[in-house]
Write a structure and sequence with these properties.
Maltoporin, Chain A; mainly beta; globular; single chain
Length: 732
Amino acid sequence: MLVGVALAAALSPRPVWAIQDTERTGEQNQADSPRLLPDTLEARGQAGAGRSDTLDVRAEVELEDLLVTVTRSSQDWTRVPYALSLVRRQQIQRAERALSLDQALRGVPGVTVQNRQNFSLGDRLIIRGAGARAQFGVRGIMILADGIPLTLPDGQAVLSNLDLLATGRAEVIRGPASSLYGNAAGGVISLRTEDFAPEPLVVRPAVAFGNYGFAMGRLKLSGTAGSTGYLADFEANAWTGFREYGSADFYRFNVTTRSAVGERAELRLTGSYFSMPFAENPSSLNEEDARERPRFVRPFVIEQGAGKEIRQGQFGLAYASAPAGSGRLELTGWGLLRDVRNPIPGRIIVLDRAAGGLRASYEASTAVASWPFHWIVGTDISYLGDDREEYENLGVQEAGGEAQAGDLLIAQREEVGALGPFLQLTLQPAAAVSVTAGGRFDVYGFRATDRLLADGDDSGERTFTRFSPMVGVEVTANAWLHLYANVATAYQTPTTSELSNRPSGEGGFNPLLDPETTVSFSAGAKGVLLAPRLSYDLALYTADVRDAILPFQGPDEDVFFRNAGEVTRRGVELQTIWTALAGFEARLSYTYQDFVFGDFTTVEGDFSGNREPGVPIHQLDAGLTYSRSGWVAEGRFRWVDAYPVNDSNTASNWSYGVVDLRLSATARLGVWALVPYVGVDNLFSARYNGSVVPNAFADRYYEPTSNASLYVGLSVGLPSPSHASASASSVS
C-alpha cells in the first residue's frame, strides 16, 4: 500500500492518503473521489513491469479496486499469478457487529471462518486447509494490518486488537506464499484502515444492541490537518452468549496516523490496546448434546473456571520513500506486549509475551533486453519471548470466583528468533505475458529455558531452516480474460504452544514434532467483463503436504499435536460478482475441497486414505444487495456440506444452510446524518455447529452456534457516513 500512497502524494496536491479506495468514509461523495487513471499507474513505477498496459480499456471501472499490495508490491489484481480475492469496505462494515471475521470474509472462495462465538478461543480461520488445526487464534496464515504483522514469528496470530469497523479493505492470497512471507503463509490476509476524513475533525459515535446480551458502544474520530491524517477508534463490547457459560466483555482502542515527509515519502504510525477482563469458555459437546441441548455446558468446565484474561498492546512505525526516477524503499518496525491468564481443565496457564520485528524492502523497475523487468528484495527479522508458567487448577472455590492455582507444574522461558531474506523478479517478455519467480530462505531458532529444576532440566533448542521458491506466469488473453498458473511452496513450523504442550507433561519442547511443508500447483482465470459488469475468479489447485501437523485431545481436554505422513489437497474455487442492474449486486461463490491422507499411521490405527478432518468439502455462498435512495438491503445464504471431525472419519459435522439479512437507511437531522440498521443472523434458527474440535476426547467435537440472532444499531456522523452513499455497482 505504501508505494501507491507515497507516489500518489507526489502526483497530487492532496495529502498522500486521499487517493485510495473510491469508497470514502462518508466525508466525501464517491463522485468527488479522484481516480487513478492509467497514466497515474505508469507513474507508479509501471506497477511492476508493465502491469498497466491493459488497464486503459477499463477506464470507467474503479481502477483503485483492481490494485493490490498484499504481494509486497503495487500490482493489478488481474495480472497477479496468485489466487487473490478483494473484499471492500461495505462488506466488512455495513450493518455489521464485526465481532468475527466470519462476516467480513464470508463468500471468499477457499476461505473458511469457523465462528466459535467463544471469545476465549477466537475464530478458526482456514485457507485451503491451512489453519484447520488451530487450538485458538489463527494458525498457518500471515495476517497484516496496515502492513504491520499480526502473525508472530512462530506462525501464531491473535486477532483481538483487529478493528473491523475501521477497516476499509481486505486482500486475500489463497494458497502458499512462503516465498514472500515465510512461516505461516498457507495464505495471506492484508487489511487496510479506511480513508481519513478530509476535514480537521469528524466525530462518529455508534451504538448497537442485540439478543444474547450483545451491546456495543464506539467512538470514531477522523480527520486531516495539513499533511497529517488520523483515525482513532474506541470500542466497548459486552456479550452474554448463546451458551450457558460463554460471556465476555472487552475493550479496544486503535489509532492510525499518516504524514507526508517531503514530496515523495510517508511516515505511518499505528497503535492498539485490547483488554478482556475474562471470557468464559463453554468448551465443546458430543453430538447428542449439540443437537438436543446446544446451550448446555458440562459442570466440570464451569467448576474449573475455564476461560481467558487478556491484555495486549501493539504498535508499528513504517516509512516509505519513492524518489523520482528511482525505486521504492520501505522500512517497518513493530512491537507487542501481551499478558494472558488462561484457566483450562487441569491447569492454569500464565503467559507474559514480548515480541517485535523489523521489515525492510526495496523495489525498482528497469528493462532487460528491452523487456520490462521489476524486482523486489528485502528481509524480515522478528523475535518472540514468552515467560510461561503452568499451575495445577484447583477450580473455583466460591460462586462467581476465579480458578485457584495450586502447585507450579511448568516454568520456562520460550524464545523464537526468525530471519528471512527474500527476492522476487518479474519479467514481461511480451505485453500480454509476465513471468514471476521468487524465493525466500528462512531460519527459525526455538529455545526453551527450564526454570523449574526440581524435576530435572528440560531446557532445549530446535532450529529449522527452509528455502521456499515460487514460479508463476500470467497471460492476458484479452481485456476480460487473464490466465495464470504457479508452483509455490509453504513452510510452517510448530508454534511455541504446540511444541510446549507435550503429552508426557514434561517441560521444554516436543522433540518429535516437526515442521510441515507444502508444494502446491495452482491455475486459474479471472477478469472483468464491462458490458454485463461481471467480475469472476476461477481457481483449481493441488497441494502435497508432508508432515502435516494435526491436533488430538487428551482426557484432561488439553490439545497436543503430531505429524501425519502425507496429505493431498485438491480443490476448486469460483466467485462471481454481477452488478449489471442499477442498485443491484449479486454474489455467488463455491468451494470444493478434497483433502485426503496419504500415509498416516498412529497407535490408534491406520488412517491412510481417510479425509482430513475439520475442513468442509463443499461450501456455497450467495448474496443479493439492493441500494436505492439511501436504503440498503442485503440477504445472504450460506450452505456447508457435512465433513469429518476425526482422523478415523467415524464422526461428522452435519451439513447446514443459514440465511442472514441486513437493512440500513440514512436520515438527516440538520447537518448530522443518522444511519440506523438492523441485522439478523441465522434467520430460521438452523441447528448447526459453526466450529468443531478435530479429534476431541470423548467425541466432544462440536461447538454449537446460536439460534436466530437479532441486533439493531445506530451510527451518527457529520457529514454522512459512507453507508449512505455507498454504491453496490463497483467491481470488487
